[in-house]
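pinned: reference chain
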Amino acid sequence: MSAEPSLPTPSPAPRYGVWLIGARGSVATTVVAGCAAMTAGLHPPTGMVTEDPVFADSGLPALSSLVFGGHDTLDCPLPKRAEALAAGGVLPPGLPSAVAAELDAADREIRPGGPAAGDTRSEEELIAAFASDIRDFITRCGLEGTVVVNVASTEPAPVGSALPASSLYAAAALRAGCPYVNFTPSTGLHHPALAPLAEASGLPYAGRDGKTGQTLLRSVLGPMFAQRALTVRAWSGTNLLGGGDGAALADPAAAAAKNAGKERVLVDTLGAAPEGEVHIDDVPALGDWKTAWDHIAFDGFLGSRMILQTIWQGCDSALAAPLVLDLARLVARARERGLSGPLGELGFYFKDPVGDGPSSLAEQYAELRHFAGRLRDGADGRGAQR
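pinned: its structure tokens
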């Protein structure tokens, strides 16, 4: 009897890297632990827009295909960081031990960031070192592609021509041939010195400042007032938060960078900036939990004076983590499809989005759904089959 022909060995499924700047912070730790929990079927993908059926045939990388690494100046191992987050109620009890192997694997891929105090390396030397770390990660892990995502604490706006840390990492991402996502209000690719590099790179990029709480609500309420022809006289807000973000935003310069995106949403949706400011208060006892309060004074028919007040209480890391995973998948796929430049269709995720696009959340969501079609094989920019 002749031997039966052997079946071809299936090719291993492609894997995709997610390189996190601020890789040992609360958001990054929640991203890694959450991805592992969903992959193992321990928790549903609550908050992940890319798990909606509209993205089912867009060719996004599977959550199980994501490999994590990153840069950080901290040396607390991810498993320890996860235990601290579980103790603070950010992660479910028992989850750090359930996904300990995945946390350990990601922690082994974290490299020292910078520039640290006393670091004498030039900007060029820092960029080259960071880019080398990313390229080594891609080669060592056999990755199909990698997206660099900045989830580090907010930095003040730069003064002078020197590149801030966020821009050094952004330049390193481009040099390593990786798309870049800025989930923070820090400068990143917005530095004028990087504009020619971003354009010449042929890479897609997105940002900036993830829209997770107060501004998410503003992007819904602002259009409501405009569409109902109600005149907003004043819009004031207060944020109470702790953790690393609370400490970073205690710096007035960092807080100003954060508030710029919040104000832009109101200007874009209302047509003008109303009176009022946003105050950010560092309350260390709150840890990773925050409270955002808005007080809106508006005029109704015949000048009737009215007030709307909102209170948003939530865990910033848990709000941000599913969005970071969404963005990593979307931008990785955009790179596969050969897209380049600012991805304005991802404005749904940001306070201060790059590229052109609407500011109303409903319109941004419509743009995102169109983008799902653009990512499909054989589809044009609006999802129509060629």
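why pinned: The chain has two domains: 16-210+319-374, 214-315. The chain is about 40% helix and 20% strand.
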